[in-house]
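idk why but the lab printer keeps eating my pages so im just putting this in chat instead. protein + alpha-L-arabinofuranose:
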Amino acid sequence: MRRWVRRGARVLVVVLAAGAALVPAACGGGGEPIRVGFSQLSAEGSWRAANTASIRAALTPATGFELTFSDDEQKQEGQIAALRRFVADDVDVIAFSPVVEDGWEEVLREARTAGVPVVLVDRGIATDLPDAYATHLGADFRSEGERAGRWVREHAPGARVFELQGTLGSGAQVGRQRGFRAVAGEQVAGAATGGFTRAGGRDVTAAALEAWPDVDLVFAHNDDMALGAVEAVRAAGRRPGVDVRVVSVDGTREALRALAGGDIAHVVECDPLFGEQLARLLRRVAAGAEVPSRTIVPGGEFDRSVTAAQIDARAY
Ligand code: AHR
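predcted complex ->
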């Protein structure tokens, strides 16, 4: 457990052992909104759009927040610049979804020195810097990859797999790849990144089907790329779901429709709708209350038995 305590106009980072006695000063109480600077990594697809909408809906003046939102277009330098602006603005809390895992030490050291607590949202980072951030809220990407791999082992043990990776070096790509390979690694014939976009998924799968003609299963690290892969399979004159199966992660409405129709074979859910959970966490961090270092957003799985009611109920 960690706790951050506000002192005067700025925030002093104090990391305590669980249970240590220290009274947190009020932040965001007494009518004062909690000032949050949030750097979203981009608007690359439908999952991200839903995630942004959920966060924006939860962090409003009516719920006690003053949100400064920055869309940083898949650029780490843009995110670092946004974080520096938030520090200079002396926000109460910084939250951000890191586009990649590495390379955050310098800016996080600056935030720590300035006493501004940082919350990781969705993706994680790789760092040795002690107390680099207060807490991390997001899915367990490795487990998502493992579950996709288990489905492949069970339902397509002889398949030759093309792994359609997300943004290289991102927490989602690294975790899903590790998890999948731990379970079904020997079935992977080749891999390349489609950058988590539908167009990327289509183009890269088209090239992969030529490079590895024996590939008969695509593991896509997200639904947008999976839908692009389905287009590429068709364009190559092969039948999605029959000649080439596609397994995916996210659980968007469009992907579940493709699942029900047979174009996609299996979907592991990654839930983007955690805005309210984030709001609760930010209140605690801003108030100097103890928070867990990691909170996992749970997700289920969908197979061909997905119903029309489930698809219609999807919010993204
Ligand atoms: O980090 C979460 C991943 O990022 C989602 O699976 C994907 O759709 C998005 O681009």
